[in-house]
């Protein structure tokens, strides 16, 4: 008799609930792990105590049992088909809504009683409010990229400008040297002229 009373006690594994922050429309995997392979006819249930009915998802060895599932989660929850064999009792929740915010409890029931394995807090934020908070950061990143791109543009433009000028100067001196070799008078004429830049004349 005492053994039956002990097995009938609802056991609670106290774990501090961890908060998970998500955005509307995203999917989330609520983690839960517990060995159930040595239990007789185990049932895993995900629930929210602030809802009525409180059942979010329920699974037995035969498969999902969703008759008592809250209508808010219809078609948006799933678990692995071998969850009760592997002990991976995690819940996949899709197309998140702000109404999904709350504390989710993972519990396992069997002939020996009910055991709450884990509680996890979920916070679903509106997409618009999140973008509003991130907008200043995005603006700073955009301005930084624009400034870096402008600096690189002016640097390479100046470098190309200088290299072009040097090439024109070399070409000018080469032509003068060729004419000087062929015509001594041409050499004497350029010696009398003041120095000038062929590049300046070219630009004019």
TrEMBL record:
One Pfam entry name: V-set
One Gene Ontology cellular component annotation held by this UniProt entry: external side of plasma membrane
Extent of the signal sequence: 1-19
Alphabetically ordered keywords of this record: Cell membrane, Disulfide bond, Glycoprotein, Immunoglobulin domain, Membrane, Receptor, Signal, Transmembrane, Transmembrane helix
Membrane topology: Single-pass type I membrane protein
Keyword 4Fe-4S: no
Gene3D superfamilies: Immunoglobulins
Compartments, record wording: Cell membrane
Record carries keyword 4Fe-4S: no
Stretches assigned to the Ig-like domain: 11-124
Residues spanning the membrane: 135-156
GO biological process, one term: immune response
Protein name: Ig-like domain-containing protein
Lineage, broadest ranks: Eukaryota, Metazoa, Chordata, Craniata, Vertebrata
């Amino acid at each position: 008799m005492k053994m039956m009373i002990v097995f009938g006690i609802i056991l609670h594994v106290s774990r501090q609930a961890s908060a998970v922050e998500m955005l509307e429309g995203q999917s989330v995997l609520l983690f839960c792990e517990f060995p159930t392979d040595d239990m007789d006819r185990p049932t895993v249930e995900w629930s929210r105590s602030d809802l009525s009915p409180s059942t979010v998802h329920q699974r037995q060895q035969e498969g999902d049992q969703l008759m008592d599932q809250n209508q808010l989660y219809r078609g948006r929850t799933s678990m692995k088909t071998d969850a009760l064999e592997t002990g991976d009792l995690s819940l996949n929740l899709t197309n998140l809504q702000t109404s999904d915010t709350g504390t989710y409890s993972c519990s396992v029931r069997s002939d020996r009683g009910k055991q709450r394995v884990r509680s996890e807090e979920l916070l679903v934020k509106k997409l618009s409010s999140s973008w509003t908070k991130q907008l200043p950061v995005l603006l700073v990143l955009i301005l930084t990229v624009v400034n870096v791109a402008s600096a690189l543009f002016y640097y390479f433009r100046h470098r190309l400008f200088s290299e072009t000028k040097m090439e024109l100067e070399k070409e000018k001196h080469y032509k003068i040297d060729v004419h000087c070799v062929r015509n001594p008078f041409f050499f004497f004429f350029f010696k009398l002229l003041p120095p000038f830049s062929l590049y300046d004349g070219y630009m004019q």
